[in-house]
Design goal:
The protein has 344 residues and is of the alpha/beta class. It folds into two domains: 246 residues, Aldolase class I (TIM Barrel, Alpha-Beta Barrel), CATH 3.20.20; 79 residues, Non-ribosomal Peptide Synthetase Peptidyl Carrier Protein, Chain A, CATH 1.10.1200. It is 43% helix and 12% strand. It contains 16 helices and eleven strands. Strands 3, 4, 5, 6, 7, 8, 9, 10 and 11 form a nine-stranded parallel beta sheet that branches. A hairpin with a 2-residue loop joins strand 1 and strand 2. It is globular and about 55 Å long. It starts with a strand and ends in a 14-residue tail after the last helix. The C terminus is likely disordered.
């Protein structure tokens, strides 16, 4: 599968953009474990054009995570164009590697974004969505892609027609999450319309499916049943960045890898922690690791007290000691792979 001149290989598995999750430390790990491409956290176009420090910092990417897409969101055409131009120059503005691809977020369902007309809120204004996309494509030199949903609600699943319109204004790949905005993340993802878009003979850009890819078997089914060009993994990667290695191995060999042991998870959590500290410093680095650390050990018996210590301790050396304690106490404890998955 290729996006512009970027070759992601056959049946690539991508890391979904997730706010407060897909920072550089996590993206690096996912790339090391086989994610074909990673995405930044979604970045507010308003924040970028106001030179908000947090928004600018989110644009900083590193060579070791490439290829990487910078994802922006918003509902004001002029702001989206200006933000896209900034993302196009991310290496100059924020330092680091910059963007290989610019992705537009038309899929986030949370109220503070969709309720204000951005993210999946744009599904209620498809003409405006297409106009913004066209303007962004014309404003930048890098490939532009879109991530969106089936529609706003059950009565407005507009993705089959919308996909054609987005393609016709120049996007070079489309990711579709198999839920409406009103579903949020509830119920099962409906891949029927994703498959319909892919089967449309008018569609010639890559179609990437997203939603409920929680295992290697689910990933294989998505490719075999629906014919998508690529798949995207989101919430199933929480505390489980090696899911990309599991999926890749299964797709290539038809065999499942054994679950990662607790001892191996501790080693990975310590590496993740060190990356976070190196990239963000001792205070922010430890604080923003809290959302990740307990996820590595979900499903361990009698873990509540240790989990609380793990996510409240602010001293990096003390956190490392707690991780060593986990390895010593639970290192030989069998842990089913499904237990490490935080939702879908």
């Amino acid at each position: 599968m290729k996006i512009g001149d970027i070759d992601l290989g056959y049946r690539p598995v991508l890391l979904a953009p997730m706010e407060d999750v897909t920072d550089a430390s996590f993206r690096i790990l996912c790339r090391e474990y086989g994610a074909a491409m990673v995405y930044t956290e979604f970045i507010s176009s308003d924040g970028l054009i106001r030179d908000a420090a947090k928004a600018i910092a989110k644009m900083r990417t590193l060579e070791e995570e490439a290829p990487v897409a910078i994802q922006i969101y918003g509902n004001i055409p002029e702001a989206m164009v200006d933000a896209a131009r900034m993302a196009d120059r991310a290496a100059e503005i924020a330092g680091g590697h910059g963007a290989d691809i610019i992705d537009i977020n038309f899929g986030c369902p949370v109220s503070k974004i969709a309720g204000r007309g951005a993210g999946s809120g744009m599904m209620r204004e498809p003409d405006k969505m297409v106009a913004i996309t066209k303007a962004v494509v014309e404003a930048v030199g890098k490939p532009v892609t879109v991530k969106t949903r089936l529609g706003w609600d059950e009565n407005s699943k507009i993705i089959p027609e919308l996909a054609e319109r987005l393609q016709d204004v120049g996007i070079q790949a489309l990711t579709i999450h198999g839920r409406t905005r009103c579903q949020m993340y509830k119920g099962e993802a409906d891949w029927t319309l994703i498959g319909q878009v892919k089967a449309n003979p008018r569609m010639h850009i890559p179609i990437i499916g997203n939603g409920d890819i929680v295992s290697a078997a689910k990933a294989s089914e998505a490719f075999e049943r629906w014919g998508v060009d690529g798949i995207m993994v989101g919430r199933a990667s929480f505390g489980h960045p090696w899911i990309f290695k599991e999926i890749r191995h299964y797709l290539d060999t038809g065999e499942e890898l054994p679950p990662m042991s607790v001892t191996e998870r501790v080693a990975l959590a310590k590496r993740h922690l060190q990356l976070s500290l190196d990239l963000k410093g001792p205070v922010t680095g430890i604080y923003e690791m809290r959302r990740h650390l307990s996820c590595y050990f979900k499903g361990l018996p009698d873990f509540k007290e240790t989990r609380i210590r793990l996510v409240t301790e602010m001293d990096p050396a003390a956190v490392a000691d707690i991780l060593d304690y986990i390895a010593a106490r639970w290192g030989d404890t069998p842990l089913a792979e499904s237990a490490s998955v935080y939702g879908v």
